[in-house]
Amino acid sequence: MSEELNTLIKLQKIDSLIISLKQKLEIIPLEIKKLEEKIQEIDKQFENEKKKIINLEKNKKEKEREIEDINEKIKKLKEKTSQIKTNKEYQALLKEIELIEENLKKEEENLLLILYNLDETQKNLNEVKSNLELKKKEIDEQKKELEKERNIINQKIEALKEDRKKLINELPPEFYEEYRELMKKHKGLAVVEVKNFICQGCFLHIPPQLYVEIKINQSIYHCPQCGRFLYYKPEEKLEEAQVQS
């Protein structure tokens, strides 16, 4: 294989790896954002449960005051019974007391329902709070791992850039310039393999004569359609056979 072609293949491998690592870097902030959104969602759930508690406490106090007022009213009505002179008035008063007592019973049942809901909501709140703390801890750990991964990737990219500089210095300037143009034109893929007569960049069927010349790998060839640098990679079996022979 020609020295220039070999250098171009190595350069392409490094650039492909850099592109792949940069794509991973772009994903990391999105993953961190998703984790933070999960925290916000749990915080929101916690705040909603707290609001429910506050409202139920308010309802409880109002209901207790209401029951207290009804009890006071019943007490006053019962005190009036000794002052009543006729049986008709007495019966009417008893009826009134009976109706108010029925209402009292209904309101006491409502109070019990509020107390039950308050108890259940408090349990939910405790559960959400416990889950919140646990989840926050897990997410913090995940964020740290992502930050660590980001640092490692940045270090890899910097190391690859150093290797890249060395390879560029080995290439004739005109080849590197052409390589750069092809990288821009084909979104990061300037050097491709030819496999079974097919350019792996644009999938053009390479003419037989050109294919034979590319297989020798002794010069620089381009795809007639996409213009990419082409190279041939021998099959492993063939390579083994060649080694054995």
From TrEMBL:
Keywords: Coiled coil. Residues 25-170 form a coiled coil. InterPro entries: CT398_CC_hairpin, Oxidative_Scav/Glycosyltrans, Zf-RING_7. Pfam families: CT398_CC (PF24481), Zn_ribbon_9 (PF02591). The keyword Thylakoid does not apply. It comes from the Bacteria. Residues 199-230 form the C4-type zinc ribbon domain. Residues 11-185 form the CT398-like coiled coil hairpin domain. This is Uncharacterized protein.
